[in-house]
Amino acid sequence: MNKEEIRKAMRKLNQAMQSVDHGAEDMATVRALVNSPLFQKSDWVFGFMPLYCEVDIAPVLQAALQTRRLALPRSNGDDTLTFVEVKSLDELKPGRFGILEPKAGVEAQPTSASLIIVPALAYTPKRVRLGRGKGFYDRYLERFPDPVSIGVCRTWQLIEELPVSIYDRQVDSLLCNGTWY
Questions:
Q1: Using 50, 70 and 90 to split pLDDT, how confident is the model at 97?
Q2: Whether the Cβ atoms of residue 110 and residue 141 lie closer than 8 Å to each other
Q3: DSSP 8-state code for residue 107
Q4: Which runs of E-coded beta strand occur in the chain?
Q5: CB 84 within 8 A of CB 103
Q6: pTM for the whole thing?
């Protein structure tokens, strides 16, 4: 299958899995991430506001707000992401795709000690990522290759193989149901 066929299948699976309680699985991933040296040593956490089909990383975002600096993405009109520092999740508003995001502000610049948490429709155990098809995170990871990038997914989003193009950026680590890949 090509990427679009896999995206279509994953979107259908997302819908089917919407009514399933993912709490225990998500918490296993959250605990593994927050207790990891990667999180503990980070200066910034570059996160995302999860959609219903993504790992609920809200506890990670709250932990980052208490112990380090947190930046969340804003979708720009030119199909790029800008991460903006956030002091409270209450300040977020729905953005251009209906995802909660910060208001416009000064772009947060990740350092080599920063952590970027990356969502996806699917991952492979080799940390290859299938995004939603616009290339936002691929371009961002290309622009900032030094911070550690960690993908998060649920067990049914972990698939054996994905097609890869020269533009695709794989993450440095992957967390799924509390297991590191």
A1: confident
A2: no
A3: B
A4: 44-46, 69-75, 81-86, 93-94, 100-101, 115-118, 122-123, 129-130, 148-153, 173-176, 179-180
A5: yes
A6: 0.94
Give the position of tokens 């969502």.
119
Helix 58-67 / helix 23-34 crossing angle, nearest 10 deg: 30
| Cβ atoms of residues 13 and 19 within 8 Å | no
Determine contact, residues 102/84, Cβ cutoff 8 Å.
Answer: yes
Kindly state the tokens that stand for 149: 């990038």
Q: Answer whether 123's CB lies under 8 Å from 170's CB.
A: no
Give the β-pairing of 129-130 and 122-123: antiparallel
Please report the domains of the chain, with CATH numbers, ordered by start residue: 3-8+22-180 (3.40.50.10420)
Token code pair at residue 12 = 């259908």
The mean pLDDT of the chain is: 95
Residue 101 DSSP code: E
What is residue 3's predicted lDDT score, i.e. its pLDDT?
95
- Partnered with residue 75 across adjacent β-strands are 81
